[in-house]
Amino acid sequence: IAGITQAPTSQILAAGRRMTLRCTQDMRHNAMYWYRQDLGLGLRLIHYSNTAGTTGKGEVPDGYSVSRANTDDFPLTLASAVPSQTSVYFCASRASETGDFSPLHFGNGTRLTVT
Amino acid sequence: GQNIDQPTEMTATEGAIVQINCTYQTSGFNGLFWYQQHAGEAPTFLSYNVLDGLEEKGRFSSFLSRSKGYSYLLLKELQMKDSASYLCAVLDSNYQLIWGAGTKLIIKP
Question: Which of B4, B33, B43 lies at the smallest CB-CB distance from A106?
Answer without folding.
Answer: B43
